[in-house]
Design goal:
The chain has 208 residues and is mostly helical. The protein is built from 7 helices and no strands. The chain has a single domain (4-207), classed as Methane Monooxygenase Hydroxylase, Chain G, domain 1 (Up-down Bundle), CATH 1.20.58.220. It has helices at residues 4-7, 9-35, 39-66, 74-101, 108-134, 139-169, 173-207. Helix 3 runs antiparallel to helix 4 (74-101), helix 5 packs antiparallel against helix 6 (139-169) and helix 6 packs antiparallel against helix 7. It is globular.
């Protein structure tokens, strides 16, 4: 990571573009969770962001394949960009499935996860910025990694609480299946945030 910026600034620029996409779809999901209507319109907006992120991911992979000397381990770059892409895809999938399943009666966990995801996005984007700026393990980076891990723990608690409430309160088995699918996807999104923080931690440890 120490030689990341001087060697190939295009990598950093593309990762910044991915951060913008993540911020956009996170904000969209927050708005969607609050309004919980106009599902098709929100899905089309999320799909546009997802397509843009896919294009950026392909540019990074193409740049990686063309580069004789890479900023850091190739597998770390691949892992990081795929995890970035996974979060954006999963958020788009969540909006799409709520639209597809016609989930008109919102569950409380939608708002709870939207807040956790918003906080995780801010922490992750800051973590990336700090990593590129300092190019070594710092106290700020350590605190951001811990924050993301704490948010993932809160996501687990939210998941188990919501799953229990779903089986207790929802009488329609079809609705249980639909909402369980949505709930599992949201819980998985928080897992990927933690996976990304672990990937970044591995990168800065190698470079420190």
């Amino acid at each position: 990571m120490r030689f990341f910026l001087p060697k190939e600034p295009a990598f950093f620029e593309h990762f910044q573009e991915m951060s913008v996409c993540l911020t956009e779809i996170t904000s969209l999901f927050q708005e969607f969770a609050q309004r919980f209507r106009d599902f098709e319109a929100y899905w089309h907006k999320s799909k546009d962001i997802e397509h843009k992120a896919d294009s950026i991911a392909h540019e990074i992979i193409n740049l990686l394949n063309k580069s004789f000397i890479t900023p850091f381990d190739r597998e770390d770059i691949y892992r990081l960009i795929h995890e970035f892409d996974d979060i954006i895809d999963l958020l788009e999938n969540t909006i799409h499935n709520i639209h597809l399943f016609e989930m008109t009666e919102k569950k409380d966990f939608i708002n709870e996860f939207s807040e956790l995801i918003a906080k995780a996005t801010i922490a992750l984007n800051t973590l990336l910025s700090e990593t590129f700026k300092h190019q070594k393990y710092t106290d700020v980076i350590w605190k951001l990694i811990c924050e993301i891990h704490d948010l993932e723990d809160l996501g687990d608690l939210c998941y188990h609480r919501a799953l229990r409430a779903l089986f207790v309160e929802e009488k329609d088995p079809v609705e249980v299946i639909k909402w369980k699918d949505i709930l599992q996807t949201l819980e998985h999104i928080m897992d990927v945030y933690q996976n990304m923080s672990n990937t970044i931690e591995g990168i800065v440890v190698k470079s420190s």
